[in-house]
Design goal:
It is built from 5 helices and 16 strands. It has about 300 residues and is an alpha+beta fold. Strands 9, 10, 11, 13 and 14 form a 5-stranded antiparallel β-sheet that branches. A 4-stranded antiparallel β-sheet has the order 1-7-8-2. The radius of gyration is 35 Å and the shape is rod-shaped. About 20% of the residues are buried.
């Protein structure tokens, strides 16, 4: 009997709490059938906030979140770039396999920018008053979203993501031996940095970009070197090589010598011609030297040339 009385008292308290809140205004006299229900081809959302504008914005945000969730459940959850390591004829090309989960966000779906209350099929709001006289709004929204629209968004999303993945795969497959100059190689390196910057900060493909950049740095630093073509008491000719391939380099080197003066560097198509005065301070022995230094990606590439 005591349990029955306690249960009845609890029901009275719940009823009192519900009765304490009163509808003081609404967008229409009759609550629509769709409010709080589900309808084919529509998203039905509701939100509560201190003001009507905030409640409406929360309901629109809920629509955007449902669209993101709908797109996310219809796409592949990860992307992978397959890389490998090759060492042949002194040329080192290093890659490794990486995978990253794909996170769908609002920035990936341009359609979300056009989601607004003006495109809603219907809405219904209530202004509620609590027993302490404070008020709040409940906003219900009926927003059209068909299966055909979902398929279109998924296709657009996958097309955009494929373009990103294709670009990433192209960067991962870069062979620096096909380039004819240091500048082309550095442009590829800078292009990857810009590509990484274009990705969202939470896009895990940034990790793949960093891995490829590290491989770029390693390949360039290990394979780029200076070769002496000719050296005498009037001039020295040098060239830049990537592994065994001669390439152009359109940057002037820094030059230092223990005896040469009036050092001048002339950039030619495939080499650098360095002229100097060797008669003023150099002796006729094998201890006369010229150091030529290029700085590429923070690494000093130096070649010592002996002037005889």
């Amino acid at each position: 009997m005591r349990r029955l009385i306690a249960f009845a008292a609890a029901l009275l308290l719940v009823g009192a709490a519900v009765a304490a809140e009163k509808v003081v205004d609404s967008s229409s006299k009759k609550r629509p059938d769709w409010a709080g229900a589900s309808m084919e081809g529509y998203f039905v959302t509701s939100a509560q906030a201190p003001t009507l504008e905030e409640a409406q914005e929360k309901a629109i945000t809920a629509v955007r979140e449902q669209i993101i969730a709908a797109v996310a459940t219809n796409i592949h959850s990860e992307t992978s770039i397959v890389m490998r390591e090759v060492a042949e004829n002194g040329h080192i090309d290093s890659h490794k396999e990486m995978k990253s989960e794909l996170h769908v966000a609002a920035a990936d779906i341009p359609y979300l920018a056009d989601i607004s209350p003006s495109h809603a099929k219907d809405f219904y709001w209530l202004k509620m008053r609590r027993d302490d006289k404070s008020t709040y709004y409940v906003y219900h929204l009926l927003y059209p979203f068909s299966n055909s629209k979902l398929r279109m968004l998924v296709m657009e999303y996958e097309k955009a993501q494929k373009a990103i993945n294709d670009s990433l795969q192209a960067f991962a497959s870069t062979d620096f031996e096909k380039y004819g100059s240091v500048e082309q190689m550095l442009a590829r390196h800078n292009g990857l940095q810009q590509f990484e910057a274009s990705l969202r900060e939470d896009d895990k493909r940034r990790d793949i970009c960093q891995s490829i950049l590290m491989n770029y740095d390693r390949m360039l630093r290990q394979n780029l070197h200076v070769e002496v073509l000719e050296s005498n008491r009037q001039e020295t000719r040098i060239c830049m090589k990537y592994a065994s391939k001669r390439i152009a380099c359109h940057m002037k080197p820094k030059m230092k010598s223990n005896c040469l003066v009036a050092l001048q560097a002339k950039l030619n198509a495939q080499d650098v011609q360095i002229t100097y005065d060797s008669e003023s301070g150099c002796y006729a022995d094998d201890q006369n030297w010229l150091d030529v230094t290029f700085t590429i990606l923070g690494k000093r590439i130096t070649q010592r040339c002996y002037i005889r």
